[in-house]
């Protein structure tokens, strides 16, 4: 059996091939322009699901890193508190609570956030850390570029306070 191919059929096949090549070229140009392999889920459903799983995993890892930084801050605070108590026990020469407290009330040293002293048992803030112009004045930090940056007080500041773009400060 002989099959006859007309000029019209050949033209349609050539045009269809040109259109397929043109669509591939357009998709390739879109990928190059957007710098993305996947521009819509229908491009490759399997790779789309993998990309979403990877993004979820990345978000989890970033949260884990933030949790570690937070835990390190708490660990440092606990270490300082334990150090203060250990020093008081050594000075008291005993673990007797009354002797330890008496020595803890005598604590007086220059720390990273100011002079560290404790209120006495008869003060309003019993055994709390003293705060004020000659002692600890507080500490303000801000997360900047995934790091905690001390922004106040100025004498120990590691950076300046940054405001989001939507906050308009009066001059």
Description of the molecule:
The chain has 171 residues and is mostly helical. The chain has a domain at 139-171. The protein is 49% helix and 11% strand. The chain is built from 3 helices and 4 strands; from the N terminus they run H-H-H-E-E-E-E. A two-stranded antiparallel sheet has the order 1-2. The chain is elongated. The termini are far apart. The model has no long low-confidence stretch (mean pLDDT 86).
* N to C succession of SSEs: HHHEEEE
Report the end-to-end length measured between terminal Cα atoms: 91 Å
Which word captures the global form?
elongated
Mean pLDDT: 86
User: How many β strands by DSSP?
Assistant: 4
Cross-sheet strand order for the largest sheet: 1-2
| Main beta sheet | 2 strands, antiparallel
Q: Give the helix level as a range of percent.
A: 40-55%
């Amino acid at each position: 059996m002989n099959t006859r191919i007309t000029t019209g059929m050949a033209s349609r096949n050539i045009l269809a091939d040109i259109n397929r090549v043109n669509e591939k070229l357009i998709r390739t140009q879109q990928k190059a322009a957007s710098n993305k392999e996947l521009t819509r889920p229908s491009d490759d459903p399997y790779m789309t699901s993998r990309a979403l799983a990877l993004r979820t995993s990345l978000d989890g890892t970033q949260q884990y890193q933030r949790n570690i930084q937070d835990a390190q801050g708490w660990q440092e605070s606990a270490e300082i508190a334990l150090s203060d108590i250990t020093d008081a026990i050594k000075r008291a020469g005993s673990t007797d609570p009354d002797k330890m407290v008496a020595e803890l009330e005598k604590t007086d040293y220059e720390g990273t956030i100011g002079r560290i002293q404790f209120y006495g048992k008869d003060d309003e803030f019993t055994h709390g850390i003293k705060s004020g112009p000659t002692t600890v004045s507080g500490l303000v930090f801000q997360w900047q570029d995934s790091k905690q940056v001390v922004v106040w007080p100025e004498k120990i500041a590691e950076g300046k306070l940054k405001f989001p773009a939507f906050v308009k400060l009066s001059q």
